[in-house]
Amino acid sequence: MATVTSKGQITVPKKVRDALGLHPGSQVDFEIRGEEVVLRKRVPGEVFQRWRGFLRGQIGGEGTDEIMKELRGE
User: Fold this and answer.
1) Residue 5 maps to a domain
2) How do residues 16-33 score in pLDDT, each as one tens digit?
3) Which residue among 15, 34, 48, 66 is least packed, with the fewest CB closer than 10 Å?
4) Which among 65, 63, 70 has a CA at the least distance from the CA of 45?
5) Closest Cα to residue 39, out of 17, 23, 54?
6) DSSP 39
């Protein structure tokens, strides 16, 4: 169990950090599935591949600025 702080932060339990190989500075993604949240370790290059697949065949898809913000995690 984790408690959300006033800043919206939680501490990821050690068992979870160890299982995912999370270290200080690791990036994670959150996915909402109904009433649950899934935490995934972000793999370098994964965001680019996701955008690349999305934009393939799209005319006038997201602009470069939006893609760069996503890649930077902004």
Assistant:
1) no
2) 999 999 999 898 989 999
3) 34
4) 70
5) 17
6) E
Residue of 44 and 30 predicted with greater confidence: 30
User: Which residue reads 């339990």 in tokens?
Assistant: 13
State the pLDDT at residue 1: 85
Burial class for 2, CB neighbours closer than 10 Å (0-12, 13-18, 19+): exposed
State yes or no: pLDDT of 59 exceeds 60. Answer: no
Dist CA 23 CA 40 (whole Å): 13
| C-alpha span between 50 and 29 (Å, rounded) | 13
Q: To the nearest 5 percent, what fractions of the chain are helix, strand and coil?
A: 35, 15, 50
How far apart CA 74 and CA 66 sit, in angstroms, is: 9
- Number of other CB atoms surrounding residue 27 within 10 Å: 13
The number of domains in the chain is: 1
10 in any annotated domain: no
